Amino acid sequence: MHNRSGNRSLLIKHAAEIVTNTGTVAKKGADMNHLKKITDGAIMVKNGIIEWVGATADLPVGNEKNLEIIDASGCSVIPGFVDSHTHFVFGGYRPEEFFWRLSGTPYLEILERGGGILNTVEATQSMEYDAMVQTASKRLDAMLAMGVTTVEGKSGYGLDLDTELRQIKAMGELNNNHAVDVVPTFMGAHAVPPEYRGREDDYVAFIVEKVLPAVVGQGIAEFCDVFCEKGVFSVEQTRKILQAAGALGLKSKIHADEIVSFGGAELAAELAAVSADHLLQASDKGIADMAARGVVATVLPITAFCLREQYARARTIIDSGGAVALATDYNPGSCFSHSIPMLIALAAIQLRLSPAEILTALTLNGAAAVGRADRIGSLERGKQADIIMLKYPSHLFLSYHVGMDIVDKVIKKGQVVVDKADLT
Ligand code: NIG
Ligand code: FE
Q: 9-79+378-423: what CATH class?
């Protein structure tokens, strides 16, 4: 863990390019393709906040004390990535399941048999708090090394009161003590625990009456998410949980239309959720409704790849005026990967997003998907200095150097927290 408060000044200069969105809300439709580009660029940071961005030649003259200077010649400089959908706090692993799926057993059938998510639930319930924090902290280290400066993480591997609260508390501690900013989401409605089988509405009542108030009382969680899927939680049950969560001050997300077209996207629009995620089977109406209500469509192509499902229609969503965010969905089941290079490769080659759309989806729109586009997601005056320097002079290399990690340095709140300059 390395959380250093940004109390010094940092100057990055002579960047081959600085490429960023501008603004404090998600970019939609054709606007996702518009980036601001500064050649031979410079960024001045003070107390962890960006103070000035422009051409090196136009740098205001000052006499800063304690000024750290980085020469970014040959490097493209972009905002830190926001991984806006993960399940990174978990116990145990499920390698067998990966191969069962490849031999033809469907994801939902494994869950139906009491495996899948429920397997991880058992392992997480028996995990002590310290072990939970330590393992999750190492995962954040690895994510940070790939340029991820903000991570959303979900509970939902507890399903009982104590473990759900423990997962959220662990994320709160990591947010305080790790360089990566962590946005905690309560996802008690991730699966129906075995003891509630056949009494699903009782579990929903338990979530609404017991768990949600305790979670909100902890004061850590910012979002509530529900796995709205055939055989898991119905549209009605999802609505009930998210309305209750909303009344207690949590913002909404939905795991929507992942395996079956189920009305999750429509519900996200109805509830004005901040995001709906997965969307592999989202209907035309669901896509249109979401665009009209400004719900961010969070697309998770590594999961579709692992499940060998068809990809979400990210191109259609953007072309119909919607806002797309890209995230990994890092979890021990459907997608045991937090690989940003792989995410970018799939977005470029399978989803057919442009380099500018990909950058927008991983930065400003990711920030919007976690309700933080006012603070992070772009390189402009007043935003948190979460910055990536690439090993190449253009952001085009993110897609072009397929599946490769080309991050050279990661700067978090104005401090260099990852430096790979000497590695090839
Ligand atoms: O987003 N779909 C539901 N939840 C996760 C998977 C969780 C798991 O398999 O452990 C997802 O894919
Ligand atoms: Fe997920």
A: mainly beta
